[in-house]
Fold these 3 entries.
Entry 1:
Amino acid sequence: MFVVHNFINGEFVETAGGQTFTKRSPVDNTVLYSVSEASQRHVDAAVNAARGALNGEWGNLSTEQRVDLLYGVADEITRRFDDFVEAEMADTGQHRHVMEHVFIPRGAANFRAFAETIKTVSSESFQTATPDGRGAINYAIRVPKGAIAVICPWNAPFMLMTWKVAPALACGNSVVVKPSEETPATASLLGEVMSAVGVPRGVYNVVNGFGPDSAGEWLARHPGIDAITFTGETRTGTAIMKSAAEGVRDVSFELGGKNAGIVFADADFDAAVEGIYRAAFLNSGQICLGTERVYVERPIFDRFVNALKARAESVKYGRPSDPGATYGPLISQEHRKKVLSYYERARADGATLVTGGGIPGLPADLASGAWVQPTIWTGLPETSAVVREEIFGPCCHIRPFDSEGEVIGLANDSECGLSTTIWTQNLSRAHRMAARIDVGICWINSWFLRDLRTPFGGAKQSGIGREGGVHSLEFYTETRNICVKL
Ligand code: NAD
């Protein structure tokens, strides 16, 4: 069987003793390949390799030389585009279209975007008066933070991993990546790319395994790691923050969301239905920025619910490679159990089921996959766990509202603060509301429209820090002040 190995100091490393775990297909539950599970010794070796790289050839490269390598990485990803698409399709079960148009191109774009950023960033300087009248000059330089742990989720694995690896390397750091145990394939492929374009050994390392008492925790606790960037669940972020406290290491966190979608009666109706459909159901609802709470102004409430129902019922189930299919499975049987527990909870809390609510009847070759129906409810109280907790599945609850003030209150009544999408033709209202909703990103008449130069991150329990453009430099570099007495 094919084995995905750890990538340490420029080499693919088999686990001593052959310790492996199995990766199954979300589509039909068949075994896809096995993965070498890193031991604590492998994590040590990867961290040592990353530290060694900082003091070796990599640490001596000029910014221009690093930028050339990053462009090379982007070009090589593009050259091996089909390999990345196939690997990510197999790991996630999601469709070719989303891989080809969003997730894989964004991986290459991340390397280009941060190569551009680092080339053009400036630093500050001050002329300082001194008592002897001769003065001093103060200026700042940015230096790499060191060896960075990059701990990643499974929902858009390559895009989210490169969103961290690219700025880390652009700033001159080295990395040890811990991909999700559900989706290790593209992190391994990126190791091949790094070698092919001549990124020095030890700059990019990958250790495979799980979270607690496994590669994730060992990496986060490792004293050789200078900072940790993590995307995943808020609960995991809490555990990682405790690990980071030892040694007072910096963290950058992109965590969970329970995002509101708000539709006013004056919205472009069809665009709003399509926008909320994508926000709730793209990637089978497994996008942190997705919308699980929808608020619709009362005059169009019934019409909107019916239109979204029709749209949700139009999905075509199928394998990622099936060109007619538009909808994939959840990532795993375990995640399906979690999502179905919320479907059950909605029933228990008295929801009106608009559509879905269970497992679809599918042909025998798909029946063992982690499929669930796209699901819409109405009629739940805002106190229901279904409305308050992140489900991370293809589902949403829709509730009517009557005023701007009321819907701002509803949107803000959450421990999370990642994103919001507002649909209205009244732009004054849209700007006004965007300033009052406590989130990291507010989309108006759009959703998931990203400019990589903008700050990205979450408010409240949805994260710590901002990544994107120059904002990434705040985390991936230390600013050093240099004071010269004249
Ligand atoms: P997860 O938190 O379960 O796992 C993420 C990673 O952390 C995995 O690699 C896992 O092995 C590792 N991990 C788990 N426990 C750990 C520990 N104690 N120490 C160190 N590492 C540990 O998240 P997931 O289920 O893979 O991803 C889905 C979650 O990610 C959702 O909550 C979603 O909202 C969030 N997410 C957020 C963003 C964002 O930008 N805010 C983007 C994508 C996903």
Entry 2:
Amino acid sequence: MKFDILTLFPEMFSSLEQSIIGRAVENGQISINLINIRDFSTDKHKKVDDTPYGGGAGMVMMPDVIYSAYKSLESSDAKVIYMSPKGKTLNQEKVEELSKENHLIILCGHYEGIDQRVLDKIVDEEISIGDYVLTGGEIPAMVLIDSVSRYVKGVLKEDSIKEESFSNGLLEYPQYTRPEIFQGERVPEVLLSGNHQEIDKWRKEKSLEITKKNRPDLLKK
Ligand code: 4FD
């Protein structure tokens, strides 16, 4: 999977050099190509934004600079995603769907957003990571890259995505490891029993219980 990221702050993406995503890049399972939008400004002060027509607070990113940055990419087979609080909310189903693409171009906005005309020309999907506003689209882009990369072949161990939250429409059951007694609290006895039928039954009950408590909306589907 190839990710091209159009951003004013490429340095923010250094956190993706860590841990599982960092290893996936090193192993060539994913690639992350950072494009600094500011490099495509033709203005002598490297200006990338201007005041909104019609008035109002803040600044709007200029369409020509964004379009030039986009045009510098080989984009024949790519899906272009714009991270925005106005987008459709990301969920695990959407993540899995996007992981089937070969090439994603992710556009990160700042200030009050981007001139609508260039969005209409280049964007295939507008996606939000949830109902809140951030200072830029970079953190949402990293959320998207992390969640999608987990589904790319070889990034996780084979079984890791089978029993996690949302995979069966429910939240995941609680997990325990050594020691058997922590601050006076024992690991649930059934997990030590070796009876896998009983363990599966207990985990299903616990999944239902936590889903009812924290996300009853998931049960109504
Ligand atoms: N909820 C999200 C995405 C971006 C963002 C921005 C218009 C502001 C939250 C376009 C206004 C982009 C999200 C940058 N905040 N901020 O996914």
Entry 3:
Amino acid sequence: MAMTGKTRVCGVIGDPIEHTLSPIMHNAAFNALKLDYAFLAFKVKPSEVENALNGMRALNIRGLNVTMPHKSTVLNFLDRVDLSAQIVNSVNTILNKESKLFGFNTDGVGALKALRENGVEPKGRKVLLLGAGGAARAIAYAMAKESDELAVLNRTVKPAQELAKLLEKLANKKIFAGSLSPKEIQQNLQDSDILINATSVGMKPKAEESLVAPKLLRPDLAVMDIVYNPLETKLAKDAKAAGAKVVSGVEMLIYQGAASFEIWTGKSAPVEVMRQAALNHLMKV
Ligand code: ATR
């Protein structure tokens, strides 16, 4: 669609930002729905985050996605932050409504939708989550509410323990925290139904790595890896070979993006268009 004097601007801020898929997915979605919006990537240094958000107000930028390393920093400069973003101390979506900036985190709902749309229901199930970083925290919050049992393992145990303690109070259930040692992975995986890798292990250029020994994977397990580059991670390949149900990282990418799109435009996101745009791009890289 041609840009006009009425074109509304959205974007993503981060540093580095060159590899973001957000402009590809959102511009495809705006075009598909013939919305007069444009989406750009802005490289913003950590020292410029406050200026960038003041610029968002001044230039009437409608919405921003926030990525590394600004997801926590932006919380200091927003007018209101929704509960899930406050709890996980991480914002990935900002809405500008009459110069008031509202912060959201769509990673948790994105992960939940990715599972459900692919036939995996966490209700009544045990979830084993690997990682306690920004994305993992948001997923943990969603899973603590929706699943029956949750275990969080992280390379550095302390953030996993802090997260478990916080979520136990909120969700009123016992949440196990531990390390990523092979023994803890094995012990926790044996009675889990859903395994989610929310660490960066397996991401290119270290695509041959996985935290989970192939022999631990089983047909009655559902596995989601939030890493989407490569499109099929080592963990996903091993899980598929073991007969497990696999949900690709692209699914979470799409559904967190779809949730942001809906916050900015108030329209239902064209999920299939976003999926094709993301996949076409990822198949080329
Ligand atoms: P994101 O926003 O993508 O979640 P992040 O907040 O930097 O990124 O979190 C990265 C996650 O991957 C963390 O859980 C990190 O573990 P630590 O908290 O111990 O740093 C995990 N991670 C990164 N590299 C890892 C590795 N080689 N082995 C195990 N875990 C790793």
